[in-house]
Write a structure and sequence with these properties.
heterodimer, A: Peroxisomal Thiolase, Chain A, domain 1, two-stranded antiparallel sheet, 13 helices, 11 strands, B: OB fold (Dihydrolipoamide Acetyltransferase, E2P), 2 domains, 2 helices, Thioester_dehydratase-like (chain B), DUF35 domain-containing protein (chain B)
Amino acid sequence: MTQSRDIGVIGYGCTDYVKKADRPLLTFLAQAGRDAIASAGLEKSDIDGLALCSFELPPDNAVTVAEQFGLSLSWAYLGTAGGAGPIASVLNAIRAIEAGQATSVLCIAGDAYDVSGLFRLLDNFGRALTSYGSPHGFGGANGLFGIIQRKHMETYGTTREQLGRISVDQRKNAQKNEAALLRGPMTLDDYMNARVIADPIRLYDCVLPCAGAEAVVVSSLDRVPRGKGVRVLSGYEHHNHPPGEISPLRGGWELFRDALYRDAGYGPEDFDLVQAYDDYPIMVAIQLEDLGFCEKGGVGRFLEKNSFTWDGTLPLNTGGGQLSVGQSGAGGGMIGLVEAVRQLRHEAGERQVSNAQRGLVSGYGMVGYGHGLSTSSIVLERS
Amino acid sequence: MTHNDQQYPTPRVDQINSAFVEAWAEGVLRLQVCGACGQETFYPRPLCPHCWSSDLGWTEHDGKATLVSYSLVMRPNHPAFFEETPIILAEIALRDGPTMLARVICDDPTQIRSGLLLELLPAEEGKKYPLPTFRPVL
């Protein structure tokens, strides 16, 4: 859908990331939110909308968090789309502002868990997985995405060496990001020979569950100086596509891709950076196909021809992504958005993409009976 | 009970899926079938996901299937499975029927290939697993 060109992201924030939660979830959410408001140059009293994405938040919700934070709101939103939710929350915040329901919306995403917490979460993610996945010993998301990766490899000839380029280059990006939990050097050999988790998925195909939160402020771009606002040119979400298919080799981005680029006025060749949802390299690969960076099935060759570091031919997940920074639950769906905003404000330090003007960010999540049910994408431009 | 004395997790049984769960306790694979549009569905739903009819019944499937794709899970979600790794977790296509996630039992996991023909475990062996479980047709 076409967005108002006067509304965008005017601030961002994030917490430190820790492997084991050392403070309550609400503390992480508060820190990220306060950071984002400060980065926007706003006061707490300017915030009249709040959007939250968090798996562990229930029984609390956006309204009880408003009570905790002492916010008086005219609009509140609770994300339901897992790692696709944070982008969707920004799109919905823009609609709320366009409709006059709010003027400045704080969007926060995060969770505070660890490896065992992730397994508990996946066991109880939805009725279908609880009843028809867990009793098989399914291994959480790793087992499900192993099925998808093998199918892609056997259908299109995609190799682990090709997919490994994503993990290896993102690790190089993480070495320029002090917030990343995994910053040690990683070679393609390291990737290939890592411990098997759910064959063909190995250790460096997997994210490290952790605690942390990310946040952005959505408001009128004229509230910040030129260069500090990030315009939202277009954005879409989609859920449960294709219905009934367990391990599809497409995610739903292909349904709105043409509209996304038509609304934005830009296509894949116009982006200075891409932040793709990286729960697994195979899903980054499928996103690159669905979003038109190469044809379906052609991502293996595409991966071989490109480099994905911050100074590469296609800067991808320039902060290291979830694969190196860690996955703070639903916060994993906002880490790319915050990194894109940081880059487009030219505040990315040693990993700054030269003269970054436009970026694409996509989200994916809410694992159902076999695959992620939700997808989202947003096109951003430096104002 | 498994080797390490942990019970397998079991499906939550309710009015939607009880006929399916009870059938598998006897080694029978029962699929939900829609009386209005005739389509079969796995897993059991509160309404037909194709036409939204509530006219839902059950049909038996003989369990003949093809292995579509699979993963070899080394780190299962529940301790009951820890001594049985790798867990062969597969997407399977039932012959003339829907696809489903299923566990495949095979003493030698290196024998597993996409495209293999599968059949249900015999009732006596199958009953120890909480959901329909398959083996390669040798």
